[in-house]
Amino acid sequence: MQSVRPSLKALLAAGLLTASLAAANAQQPAPPANDAPQRTTATYADWVVQCETQPGPPVQKLCEMTQTTQVQGKNIPFSRVAVGHPAKGHPTRLVVQLPVNVSFGASVRIRTGDGDPGIAAPFARCAPNGCFADFELKDEVMRKLRAASGVGKLSFADAGGREIDVPISFKGFNQAFEALAKD
Fold first, then answer.
1. Span 125-136, pLDDT tens digits
2. Whether residue 26 has pLDDT greater than 70
3. Residues 119, 135 contacting (CB under 8 angstroms)
4. Sign (positive/negative) of CA torsion 153, 161, 78, 54?
5. Rounded mean pLDDT of the chain?
6. Is the pLDDT of residue 21 over 70?
7. Domains along the chain?
8. At a CB cut-off of 8 Å and minimum separation 6, what does 164 contact?
9. pLDDT tens-place string over residues 56-65
10. In 10 A of CB 157, how many CB atoms?
11. Confidence of residue 89 (pLDDT cuts 50, 70, 90)
């Protein structure tokens, strides 16, 4: 929406207008408001911070940082790792989305490197678009993730019990989290 501002000449001319003309102009309807959500995206190495501002009242801004992996040679997502905006007084949460062909008998594990035992969480739920594991990132774990900068592993077992390792990059994780915490 473009705003028109009167020039000094226009203001002087407006002073010469009659009261009836001013009253008629005051009754003109305001331009319609844009109710579409506003979206922003910023990339920090291998992580993307996305925010969406929903019109109000009250206006709500929802942000998350994500990393998605794709099946090699195909343009379809295989896994998605997301960290939501940290809520004051609540632990930061990380959610992993994987295909529906998973074993609920094994937990999802995230490791920052080969020597890291990592963190684990069971699958919490499945939906038609995937199965989800939800991690609570306490301060100690957050420090470890923010200090990592290389390639780690996201591990789970498929429905046949085979261990699947998906690379996860921590390059840009700290910068993306800093940006996420600011929004």
1. 999 999 999 999
2. no
3. yes
4. negative
5. 83
6. no
7. 38-182 (2.60.40.1880)
8. 155, 156, 157, 158
9. 888 888 999 9
10. 17
11. confident
The half-sphere exposure of 110 on its side-chain side, counting CA atoms within 13 A, is 25
HSE-CB at 165 with a 13 A cutoff on CA atoms is 9
What's the whole-model pTM score?
A: 0.77
Nearest one of 85, 86, 78, 118 to 102, comparing CA atoms:
78
Which residues have CB under 8 Å from 21's CB, separation 6+?
none
The per-residue pLDDT for 33 is: 53
Cα-trace Rg, the chain: 25
Residue 54: φ, ψ to 5°: -90, 135
Q: Residue for token digits 């929004």?
A: 183
